[in-house]
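Amino Acid Chain and Its Fold in Token Form
===========================================
Purpose: to set a sequence beside its fold so the mapping can be learned.
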Amino acid sequence: MRSIFTCALFASLAQAGLLTPVWIELGPNGQVLARVVVDSAADCPVLEADGKPITMTLRAGAPAGFQPACEAAIPQKVRRLRWNSKELPLPKTPRQVIVIGDTGCRVKGSAIQDCDDPAAWPLKAVAAQIASAKPDLVVHVGDYLYRESKCPSPKEGCEGPYGDNWLTWNADFFAPVSTALSAAPWAFSRGNHESCNRAWKGWFYYLYPAEFPASCEDSKPYIARSGQLRIGMLDTGATVDGNEPPAQLQRISADLGTLSGKVDWLADHHPFWGFSPAGGASNAVVTPETLEPAWQQAKPQGIRLILSGHVHLFEFIVGSGQRPNQLIAGDSGTQLDAGISGAAVAAGTVEHDFGFTQMESEHSGWKLTLKNSHGAPLVRCALPDHAPASCTYVSSSSPVSQRGMGRQEVSPGSTTTNLLSAPNQPSRPLTVDQKWQNFASETASPLTLGAGVFNGGASYLTNTDPKYGRNRGGFGEDVAASIADIASQNFFADFLLASAFHEDPRYSRRGPGPSLVDRAEYAISRSVLIRTDTGGTSFNWSNVLGTGMSAALSNAYYPPASRGASSTFTHIGLSIMGTGLAKLAPEFWPDFWQKFAAKHH
């Protein structure tokens, strides 16, 4: 039935000289616009508004290489709008909103996505799911065009147009979303792929709800209204990942100030807080792509939810204090980022799968559901108006184009390695099995080998315990003993005793808010203090006793000169001290990463 409808749709479009369905989009201050791309200016259609004709007129300023568009402003008093006997959706207070983002098929240099494979680029399937859901509003959080360079080989499945022109915009956006384009009104955000050095012409001509500018510019913020729901539309297309110029932050801060107290939601492309893979790995870091400094400058009021994209995953970060809930919906088509794993915390979720986010209005808030490209629910979150949000998993993901995928709970403040969680926030307690996995993962980490070589080398050079001597085999024995020490301490402290005493072996950062001295003191104190499974703080029995058990065990393989009570207690003291100093790395490494590492999309 759906294929019959699609054929009929395209037949009617071709007959009328239309290259896209007529779509409705939200403009500034309650304005409602109808748009359509046509074959020629003579093809601008006539709409029927409450039985009266509204003639769509040519949109001025079509750039070279672009098909013309027609548009019409729809009076707010109109209750029924039709084209070619088809009912067109008009804005109303939504009971259902769908959010998508980062939808194009990536073709740039060596980064090639198979645009012909619906499993590798499922935007058409996502659009079909949107159409069948019959939402009241669709919000696109930016990045529409990803075909930026010529396909290196037809075998890659990327043959076709590229660059900022009609053919590419049609291939990357209009054609695959055609079934959803007229299913509901749309609100369009601008992404960095629509910045002034990329696909800005197509963005401003086809999707920007105002006049086509004489040259590329940062657009002014505006309020899109769908009935009683007010969404602040913020242009962050010019944002530079991880190295934001002060002038850009000031502009965004000023724009936030303009929207403060006037909107319920905020839609933009770049997240204000979120996570990304660390250096392409599957560990999580606070992404350097966030605009939190601008938020802290403006301190906007009244915003309950931020809709963003840019990070090619689904993320939902539970708000706290002055931070509203943050949805990142960068999972709707373009090549996904590496799945994030190994960062624990129950202040949000990350999901690595293609799909879309469905928001449903409830009596006292909203229900959020992440669905994959086949419409299967993966994650559900409750967003009550006057209580913290919470999320639960519904079902497992299916493999995505043979790439690794992951699902993880995260929270602002998390960072690399599998020991981390959020600052001063209770985390879902680890099960005994998860504590075993945590021990196995950290012990098998390359960092363990590196620490073993470093500690063993230091013992060898200084001829301190374990004293295997300065002979040819002494260095290897020192390194082996050091690795055994680390492994046994991890086993006793992070698995056996952490399970017995119901303590959480993961490190919870203090930063980045407090002073460096406070954070350093906090990190070092974690050698004797620890968070419990219930979220409290107690004496770190697992580390202190585990270190003692590991030191006692070392008497079984240390040379005779390094055995006995004196050496064992010295071993315990130095190990506990070393544990505290080692916590400085996860406390401060995310700051270093956020300052110096930038991920380009």
